[in-house]
Amino acid sequence: MTAACPAGKYQPKACQASCVACPKGTHGDATGVPGTSAAHCVQCAAGQFQPTDLGEAACKECAKGTFGAGVGVAQTHYSYCQDCAAGAEQQRRGRTACENCAAGRFADQPGTIRCHACAAGQFSEGLGERTGCTACPAGTSNPTTAQVAPSSCAVCAAGRYAPSAGRGTCLPWAVCNAGNFNRDPSTTAPGQCEACPAGKYQGSATENAERCFEWSYCAAGQMLAGQGATLAGECVRCAAGRYRAEGAPAHSACAACAAGRFAAAAGSESASACTACAAGTFASPTAGCVPCADGEHSAAGAAACAACEFGAGWHPWGGCSKTCGGGTKQHRRVVVTASAAAQAQCAQTESSTCHVNPCEGTRVLCKHTKCSYSHKDGADFGAKRFAIQVSHHHVDAGQHHCKRYASADGMTHECHCYCWGAAAEAGLTEEIEDATWGMSAMSVLRGGND
To answer: Is 194 helix (H, G, I), strand (E, B) or coil?
Structure first.
């Protein structure tokens, strides 16, 4: 019994021991009808090949990423299948042609099975042989893959930059420390940190510090304090002795009053607030108008006192302030400084006591060492020590005497007396009655002793 030839083989003769294999480039008819002639062997379809002559029932398909064009002898070898060119793909087997990469995709190598998506920061537009993607220009970015148009590249937002083409994200500008600002940042450059110029500040560290801010503005009579590269400062009133006028340079300090002048009130707004210090004083920048020290003088509006110039000696003594009971007298030192104001300021006086004898009606305790009693006939009653009451007008220095008076016994008495100096000077008074002698008035001399 004979068997039918399998697909891929045929036998035109009857009762043969074997079948004939289909040649390379062909395959057996797949209809299931046994092959009885060479017509049973069918040429491989385009996109397929048959490299063997063993009588295969089917041809092999070109692999993914390749294609087979046309039919013929070439289908007898693997080389029949060609790689897809760069910019194209083939995702299926046994294809006769490759497909160009779609927009947003590319194939940079031959034989690509599936085109690659354009990376973030890139795009490709339209159909065509895309061997690569177009990079977004510097200063823009595109965070999404497989973009198909230039519009997908967005300009970097404020405070960010893209230094080169093809970036998926923009980078932040340079972070400058407080007191600095970012000079010339852009969408393509991070900028450069520089210190704030005079009169400006930046209080925070940030990548958005494109500029520094002006210090606080102060009105007339005020000045800025506490300002710096990181602080706006605050306005404080000008101190006494200083002023700041309207229209003064911005952020300028309060000006000092001119030499010899002083503004007593804080917050002065013009130089007119500074008044001249009076004669005999000088203008201290902080303490105001200060009196000159002893031995110094100044004219009005002086910034400093000058030393007085004295001559030799003193002027004569002036009169005594009292005629009795202790007065004072003065004389002045000779001043050679020319001006009348200086003469008055430099005047130096010296005082002394005068007319220290008691005035009439002063009672002073006196003690006597000698009293002689002269009788009308010249009898001497000898010395007797006693105390008397004195009431008499003053006597000049260097004099002393006692009044003569008549007592009840008809005798005339004369006493030479003295008073204790300390008692007299202190103004001590004591009324002493001497009933025996009935004495009346006595003259007192401080220091008298006979």
So the answer is: strand
